[in-house]
# Entry
Amino acid sequence: MVSPVTDPDRTGTLFLLAVTGSLGCGKSRVSRWLAGQGAHLLDADQDARAVLVPGSTGWQAVLDRFGMAMLAGEGPVTARPIDRRRLGETVFQDPQARLDLEAIVHPRIYQRQAQALTRWQQATPPGTTALVVAEVPLLFEADCARRFDRTAVVLCGATQTERLRDRGGMAIPVQQAVIARQLPEQEKQRLAHHAIDNSGAWPATEQQLQALWSSVCQQAPATTTRAWPHHWPESRTTARGEGSDNS
# Structure
């Protein structure tokens, strides 16, 4: 049974749109554009940073599993952040290490997001629907598409290599490991409800986004089976008032 804090008879409802895409294809820009139209935004990368801040339980769990060598900078240990690049290089060379990291990070991210969704639903007037956009890099690979009412994939085709070269900030072996984990674009396009071609100039992408926004605004009120909160196990924990790091 749904907790009273997420009961649509007492609040409005949420319509969740997940945005995914291959590395470097522009899903962050697309997500920000949609949020700029009035949607709430769940940013998995931002949440991943939040659950690993120094002193948090996630931070401590990473050190327990991977060792103090994962810390960046100098000074008191409890003030030093995780070196995300070093951690990424470590886990993408070792499949078991990657699974161990995901077991630490993913539940904390989902609980943090469930708390945000609870707040947003409480703030939504009864009889109305609020749109939520979530940027989810491994939406289909991590088998979490069921958490969302609709899904959209951002495509960039052959421009991916050039964009990654210009972008920098991630070691090439890590880029290659990330790409190897991701489904081919054609498969993601087959699985997604919507596809956005971002291989050309931004104005062309923006035209597609305007059509997508119009479509989801029409779909949202008519959706009867809501992904939130029914497909989010973390919503039950959040409803009982159990917090997570940095909530």
Notes: The chain has eleven helices and five strands. The two ends are 24 Å apart (CA to CA). Residues 20 and 136 are 5 Å apart (CA to CA). The longest strand covers residues 13-21.
